[in-house]
Amino acid sequence: MRRTEIVEQIKITIEKIEPTATTILYGSEARGDARADSDIDVLVLLEGESRDLKREDAISGALYDIELSTGVLISPMIMLRRQWENRPFKTPFYVNVMNEGIKL
Q1: Which residues form the Polymerase nucleotidyl transferase domain (predicted)?
Q2: What is d(CA 58, CA 72) in angstroms, rounded to the nearest whole number?
Q3: Which residues pair with 24 in a beta bridge?
Q4: Backbone phi, then psi, for 20, in 5-degree steps?
Q5: How is residue 86 annotated by DSSP?
Q6: 90 FRET partner, CA 20 to 30 A, in 35, 79, 83, 98?
Q7: CB burial class (10 A; 0-12, 13-18, 19+) of residue 83?
């Protein structure tokens, strides 16, 4: 399976589990310089007022199944949208995602 197909599978999988989530591809895959052994970095922003580990585990588990079937490492960062949007300061990670991230 090509990496673009894996990214599409990630998008569809997250949409099925969390239809209101926003998924952003970042890192080497978003920049277009990923190698065959590069991981696929995704930021998943969930709606809600507090973290829900069951929701996060459902996403992580489904992405792990994609890893097992494709052999490509997926590195999800899952957080609440309000925490992402209302940060008191902008970390290097935040700046990186905002500059090079691609909304799926």
Answers
A1: 11-69
A2: 19
A3: 43, 103
A4: -95, 0
A5: T
A6: 35
A7: exposed
Handedness of CA 39, 11, 8, 100 (dihedral sign): negative
Structural domain boundaries, residue 9? 4-103
Per-residue pLDDT of the chain (104 residues; tens, 9 = 90+): 799 999 999 999 999 999 999 999 999 999 999 999 999 999 999 999 888 899 999 999 999 999 999 999 999 999 999 999 998 888 999 999 999 999 99
| SS3 letters across 12-74 | HHHHHHCCCCEEEEECHHHHCCCCCCCCEEEEEEECCCCCCHHHHHHHHHHHHHHHHHHCCCE
Number of domains within the chain: 1
Q: How many CB atoms lie within 10 A of CB 31?
A: 12
Gap between the Cα atoms of 71 and 77, Å rounded: 19
